[in-house]
Amino acid sequence: MSTYVFKEKQFSSLYHKYIISGSSEIMAMILSYVAEKFLFTPYSIMYLKNEPYCKDIQKGLPLPLSLAVDVGCGTGKSTLPLAPHFKSVLGIDFSDSQINMARQCNAAENVSYTVASAEQMPLEDESVDLVNAGFAVHFFDQDKFLSEAVRVMNKNGCLALHACHPSMQVEYKNLSQDLTQVMHEAMANISKFDCNSFEHLSSQYQSIYEAVPLKDKKWITDITEKVSMSTAGLIGLLQAICCFQIFKDKDPNGANELLKNTEQRLHDLLGEDAESAVFNVYFKHHCVLACKS
Length: 293
Ligand SMILES: C[S@@+](CC[C@H](N)C(=O)[O-])C[C@H]1O[C@@H](n2cnc3c(N)ncnc32)[C@H](O)[C@@H]1O
Prior knowledge:
By secondary structure, the protein is of the alpha/beta class. The protein is 41% helix and 26% strand. The chain has a 7-stranded mixed beta sheet, with helices on both faces. A two-stranded antiparallel ribbon has the order 1-2.
């Protein structure tokens, strides 16, 4: 199983340094979806009469939210942004090394991390207001995870599953098309060492959306995010993709060749700008949102 890669300490450092994470627009979308589901219900009014714990930044409204769980939390990149909005946040990942890195790099007073599997979460029935999984559900046993998520969700509890499309657009001077082509070719090579995940990402989670066993659900696609990246960042990103590590394990020479070749092609295109160039890189995010009524 490809996900063994995440259990290697060296990979966690690489992952933490280079991988891109959930977009701020997706996070805002998730929070306003949760607010919409909680604020106008008797359940939330009951909470609001007591102690409101958090503020929805956008609306300036108190959110009566107790527990969020970030499943497949990795190094905590999408766990920490949840912290201001919930009384407590729990990050779950089956990799010791990812959890250790999360504890070191993305700590907060109301955030804790634990090693556990997405298919068997150490949580009571109906105890969670938000089950979040960023860049992760495509690695899980989806049927088992989805029924586990529904088990732990409170009434009006929400589910958010998000990631981005594997292809990216690189924008830089008059070289955008050529640079994008180089990155697309590198990704196409890496995707040969795939474990279904590229399929899920390329379809923007369509079959995962269809499999969510809740009536109240929606599927949002094509949310563009712009990230500033250097040549080193692009090469680092390729290495931080799980499939690249599988490639490296199966064919170390081939994997190193791909990296060297990609870097050389970027350098040849950029010439003297190679070291200093900062690109606008566009990623297309998608999100499945659902609510347990
Ligand atoms: C691509 S990373 C995403 C990490 C993080 N959510 C982020 O946005 O950066 C996927 C994570 O899912 C974890 N993972 C994969 N399968 C899992 C499972 N069955 N149970 C728990 N964690 C799992 C991996 O260890 C890895 O840290």
